[in-house]
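Translate structure to sequence.
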């Protein structure tokens, strides 16, 4: 099992930036990708971005391409989500997740991101 702890959320004005961090511990060697998801009130959880531990290939949802950047520090077992040009519709709880052979099975507790207009 992989344990994930997110940090870096907060309140920011539209057009501003935030950087989220996700520290992973436990059996991280079995993880293919690390990802970020988000869930706004009354909405389904949705995919934001993902990165492979090995090779660093990145994947983004269309609605964050060009604004968000996912990166990793393998030595620190940490994944980051740099969020620029934030919009009010980016307001959500952001979750870090680890993908294993059976799917996205490990999740963090979430961190709140609020973008004011």
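Result:
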């Amino acid at each position: 099992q992989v344990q994930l702890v997110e940090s870096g959320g907060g309140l920011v004005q539209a057009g501003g930036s935030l950087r989220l961090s996700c520290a992973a511990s436990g059996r991280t060697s079995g993880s293919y990708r690390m990802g970020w998801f988000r869930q706004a009130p009354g909405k389904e959880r949705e995919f934001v971005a993902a990165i492979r531990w090995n090779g660093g290939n990145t994947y983004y949802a269309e609605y964050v391409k060009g604004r968000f950047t996912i990166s990793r520090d393998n030595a620190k077992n940490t994944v980051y989500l740099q969020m620029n040009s934030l919009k009010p519709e980016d307001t959500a709880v952001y979750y870090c997740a680890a993908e294993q052979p059976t799917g996205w099975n490990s999740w963090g507790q979430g961190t709140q991101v609020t973008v004011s207009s």
